[in-house]
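Side project, low priority. Logging it here so it doesn't get lost.
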Amino acid sequence: MITINATEQDDVQFVGMVTAILNNAVNHYRPKEIYLIHIDHCFDRKWQKFTGKALGAVGRWNSILTIPPFDPSRVLSQKYFRSDEVALSSYRLDQGRPLHLQQTSNYNLHRYIKQVSESGLFLWYSGETKKHDVASVLLYQVEEENTFDFYASFKRAVDWKLNRVRGLSRHEMEDMMKALPTGGI
């Protein structure tokens, strides 16, 4: 099981939900590589399949998944996990190359997720959730030529609640938010 530690700016309940989503996705897909990216604050659904701006002005979305062009200054942390070659159902923290680079938008248009990993799970989640009542998660999954993605937003009144989902049914997303039984992956 992969644990995500909350920072001083993160709401522990939200980080717990993100941890459940991550571990349920890992348990389902069994990727060889996992990228976990903590973004400074909430991002909206437009980041899903967003590839960049053509001619620096016109936003482009692509059915072939590219690395979302978050400005590197928004990345609070990136963690990379690789499946353990001995115990294939466990993962170890390793050095991964940075996904988000300082570059012009044109270069992002062809940074396909399949070029980063042939068997990977990529999860972006929003930070600063102690002071903001909105949060988000974006997940990309790739296995050889097949990809899958979803986006979810959350709102907090007293507790965090699922707000909107795109790429999954609401029921599927609620299942992903449930903690795995002890022992997990």
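Brief comment: The first strand starts at residue 33 and ends at 39.
Revisit when time allows.
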